[in-house]
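Handout, section B. The chain below has 264 residues.
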Amino acid sequence: MSADAGSRLLWRFPPRRLDAETIHNSILSLSGALNFTIGGPVVNIFKPKGSFDQWKPKDDLEPESWRCMIYIVKMRGSEDGMFKTFDLPDCGQVPAKRSESTTPLQALNLLNGWFVLEQAIQLNWDSRAEIVNSHGTHADIFDQPTAALLRDLKQRGQVEKTLVVWCTEFGRFPFMQANGTGRDHNIEGFTCWLMEAGVKPSFSYGATDELGWKAVDDVTILYDFNATILHLLGLDHTRLSSYLNGTERRLTDVHGHVIHEITA
């Protein structure tokens, strides 16, 4: 409010949630697939299905369809699920009228929509080949948004109450594969970090050997990590279970110990 006391900036914002165009472009930008080419012909992201008047969204990965929404053709009567769910001008209206909606279907579309899933695949890069190019590209994508999230939590006074977990499913070997451009999976040692919400600040726990191959000091298994996260959230992992295939199962199975050394 102090930065815009006269609402000179706020009044310019649309009186609705993010529109379909903004969400479409933001997802492409986050996955690193957004095509920044300026000008040129519009892009038809739909393709024929059977007869002339039946259309469906393209389900194949085509870089030319990853352009800003300003270049995208909108088919009347046959729209993509994202276009239907989020705010987008209605082609049936003259002049076009933009709907204003906030529905549970919007969250469902962001979880299961074909476009969102394809871009999630693009973001889920691998390291078994071209590790320099892939990690260099995606490090740039993640760096500033991650810093912005932490800065935003701090500015809102919520950082002390929020547990931030940055983790990976496994690490990478410290040596190249046979192809000479990538590294294979390594479950013997990798780094995760946690922040705030009861975590000891500026503290490192455990270490690998001098090659970064295997954990050798204060070795922690995945069950310990999960047990510690649940503990920081106020849950006892030994009492938290869910019913599955006729039995009550814990998230940490029969393993796991809270790593009290990293808690404040």
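Note. Residues 131-262 form one domain. Compare this with the example in section A.
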